[in-house]
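User: For my dataset I need records formatted as: sequence, then structure tokens, nothing else. Please produce one.
Assistant:
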Amino acid sequence: MSEYPVIIQGGMGIGVSNWRLAQAVSRTGQLGVVSGTALDQILVRRLQDGDPQGHMRRGLDAFPFPAMAERVWRAYFIAGGKAHTEPYRVAGSLTKDNPRHLVELCMVSNFVEVFLAREGHKNPVGINYMEKIQTAHLPSIYGAMLAGVRYVVMGAGIPLKIPGVLDRLAQHQPVEYNLHVTGGLEGDDFTMHFDPHEFMEQEMVPLTRPGFLPIVSSNTLASTMLKKANGQVDGLVVEMQTAGGHNAPPRGKLQLSEAGEPIYGERDAVDIAELCELGVPFWLAGGYGHPEKLREALSQGATGVQVGTAFEFAEESGLREDYKQLLMAKAVVGNGHVFTDPVASPTGFPFKVARLEGTYSEPEDYAARPRICDLGFLREPYRTPEGGIGYRCAAEPLSLYLAKGGKAEEAVGRKCLCNALMANVGYPQVRNGQRVEQGIVTTGDDLNSVPRFLSQGRSHYTAAEVVEALLHGYPEDPEQNRECGFLLQTTIA
């Protein structure tokens, strides 16, 4: 692998960018990335399903603090797996001050995912976090670093303090992070603390400090990260609004199209020439999952591209096979439809939703679902009248949300992404022994281009085939193959 990868595989959703996908991409010499979102709950559900192939047990056995790993195993493992009609046991939602067992679960789960992604090869692996999900940051990052993660990628916020956290955790030093609390007043102390020595079962040599790649959506934010971060920023992922998942909102007053999607304008455009002047590596993301777009990015001075959607439909990704095939069938005939929903996410960020029957993308399906919030990844911390911290979600029962000071208009159209995204990857919660949570698939605007990665007569493709196509052209397209291969050779040289 050269100093920097040309292709970064996106850290998609909860469990889509799993260890299998990241391992497959890293084996090619590009950067495989696991999603760090909700890994605690993912591990818990894998163990309750009985860990049928023994992968979780293998990861736990490699954890450097065996007593901690054994506590997690004993707490959640069910031999043979739970009954299909039984609900998953839910680990508690994270808060500013978490009980020890939840801190340990964050550490262990992040370690296991990165460890498995690194198995069998020597190439770097990254992990992707959402800055907005702050309560998990400190122990999660430490767990990933214990497993040797080489890059931390972070978006959905302005993570100015993460570089300093990486510096200190590499030396096993105590770290802190300020929790953003709505309504906080000057003088309030909402600082989260984590000291690795309170959890270590043995002395540890210093860890390798991973490179830090914040995800930005504007030249202003890119410049801010480089000037004001409290440590080294090793590169930038510059994400356009066509990318899947959460998008940065348009700058200025929100305006919607006739279809109800946010309208982006000139103020939201990124000046790539200005990015080049910053003097750090950068990767372009959002609609760049094509050989010709990779050539374009390289010719403009980018180090490479970050690609999500193409990898989302690869065999190794965690997205459910039925969802993959149904959406692929739509894409083959050009009928895939992605809607940028301005209100679905409780975070307030626009969120891209692929229309698919039998999922919560369909209004009638979601309307039939009771408003339940029992995972709480996207909850909003707020200051209570007494000066403490409460937690609310615009997708929780309306009466609860209003009682916590939420506004009724902020709850309109909000959806429980947490449960839906868990369902996307095969871990749907069961309610009352019969009702099963449905998924809600997020993908990029270029969904209909995904079939170009298929070889003739095939309905599946692998992550390695995506890498091959991006570097050397789509299957059975020799002219593009020749041109792309020549450009990459000259650029890297």
